[in-house]
Amino acid sequence: MKGSPIILTTDFGLSDEYVGVLKGVILSINPHATIIDLSHGIPPQATGRAAEVLCKNYRYFPAGSIHVCVVDPGVGTERRIVVVRGCNQFFIGPDNGVFSRILETDQAAEVYELTNSDWFLEDISTTFHGRDIMAPAAARLSLGASINEVGPLISTDSCVTTTTTAPLVSETGIRGEISAIDRFGNLITNIEEGILIDFGLSPRFAIRIKSQLLQLHQGSYGHLPDNQPAAIINSSSMLEICVKNGNAAAILEVGIGERVVVKTK
Amino acid sequence: MKGSPIILTTDFGLSDEYVGVLKGVILSINPHATIIDLSHGIPPQATGRAAEVLCKNYRYFPAGSIHVCVVDPGVGTERRIVVVRGCNQFFIGPDNGVFSRILETDQAAEVYELTNSDWFLEDISTTFHGRDIMAPAAARLSLGASINEVGPLISTDSCVTTTTTAPLVSETGIRGEISAIDRFGNLITNIEEGILIDFGLSPRFAIRIKSQLLQLHQGSYGHLPDNQPAAIINSSSMLEICVKNGNAAAILEVGIGERVVVKTK
Amino acid sequence: MKGSPIILTTDFGLSDEYVGVLKGVILSINPHATIIDLSHGIPPQATGRAAEVLCKNYRYFPAGSIHVCVVDPGVGTERRIVVVRGCNQFFIGPDNGVFSRILETDQAAEVYELTNSDWFLEDISTTFHGRDIMAPAAARLSLGASINEVGPLISTDSCVTTTTTAPLVSETGIRGEISAIDRFGNLITNIEEGILIDFGLSPRFAIRIKSQLLQLHQGSYGHLPDNQPAAIINSSSMLEICVKNGNAAAILEVGIGERVVVKTK
Question: What is the arithmetic mean of pLDDT over C123-130?
Fold first, then answer.
């Protein structure tokens, strides 16, 4: 028995030593911990993106997994640190919206404020609570500590929510935007498949980005025409604009925030 | 007993969450799996490079290791997914050439088509079979499932081969190219030490790249002259052009595909 | 019992397969090893930076941890490979200064030359001793091999020291420089909090970088004024110049080596 795995999501990148230090702190408390990186590529301070990544992917981790999310621009201020028990997993991080999509998803989720200073490292910096407070708490939970030791149960309504831009839905269609660009240059929108289904998901939908009008394909990358942008539903059930064997972001010269309009009739 | 390690090689990069999700899927099936990253820096869709990296490095992993290679531009099309048992290890990935160097190396290797849908995730996307099909299969094999459960044995001759450019060999020498550039700016050619030995590997060989004529050194980086390009045999037994404490790619202004000629007399 | 964890610090980056190969070699010898990445983002050949990262962060790893540091521009030359037992941990790497801060920190540290060729891989390359010599030694130590099997005890005085630039201290202040820039664009100086305390650490200190005069703040990022550079003590107890929710390196157009002056009166 090695305990539940600890899953890390941060905006630290991998060129510095910050992620390694989180792991050292965890191993110092639970030498047998299993530690997995979900992503350290969240853009700096992008709490909305972190919320999205956690919400879209927690289901691929074992029940009982302990997530640590360090996207924490308010570190050292009066912002709270919380532990969410929801979606059959645990989520440790700042109360700044990174867990708001999880709280939306599981209405029965509970939130505890992490105040048990017996768990903290001895010296608490003002700028790295991931190391000094969150990683130690994850290690304790992975050793089987009870959620009741974390600190007081608090109201989920009191938690900060992210300001992710939701798409605007009108009678004739949907106006969304590019919310992420992956390594392949795929342009991931903030438009969920569910909304498209409400409109009767159809290959006749016209998707406009910049001056391009694209069709919605229902197959995979390999089935797309060569060298031209197309729209698909991606593996996270989001509308995505891509180019077969090419980089849509580079070809369309598009960045995060670019408007995407779906004309449904 | 934690089972055989699972080794990941992809073109996903590390800025997105795709690699983390593969690991979550594996841990959900085998909570005690040991998971190692070989490389996620394969250039997008570069099946030939993946084939090279696997072939050059599998020998450094334990017998029984289970490789998952997700360089899969044809995901969601009719391309097969295969499990190769060869070189005393297992290799799971698309049948698109990523394992062709392994099949060349071990003529007794066996290939199975991965068709056992009992192993797949419940919902299969059209764009992420690494997550939905390959990672689960790796987890099953690491738990001790038999290769016979994978699916039917297929002919190795039926497998797709990579289109890696082989060097051209003539009476007076070898014409190859730069096939990879590492973080240090070292220029790795597609010319193996073995070919040079066939020609009588000698410090009198003249190596030409762009307008530069270089000597073949038989020592290490530290023994090279300062600040000037030189050719050595690298730690993977390939001809490599480097600059001591410098970046050969930047100094020579060379990219992948640049021609390299070895005059052997 | 999985043995002591093995902690990797290199200048390999993560786009190549070199780090993965180190892990494969370790697992081939100790299949149950716990392997953690501290950092692979040390700039190429930057032994001084490696020394700093190890010294600042070893304390976050368990007693008995086995560090492998492969920042090794002299690989294949006559430079020694050493194992340091100090600070309650082990450090394996080239004798080129990467451990000199550890040796300063623990005056009772012992240094052994790694000469036990029974531990090495069978074929030793001239350019990748991390793989062929250091990783195997780490795996052996993690299995419980005695430090006495490493090779002869050598004098710590004989070890190479790094040439890290120390700040210049005068009666009226301190002249240091930027020694690292992290993913957030935070500018980390070579000036330790301890020196500032010797001068009576005060918010009246004036910190000059380029033409900017900054104040020393004693809070955290979140408490800083918006959009303007400020100086703080960071989580590693170093003077750091940062911009709240912004990138100080980009805003100030500053690189590594830029001068920083602290006027203390």
Answer: 94
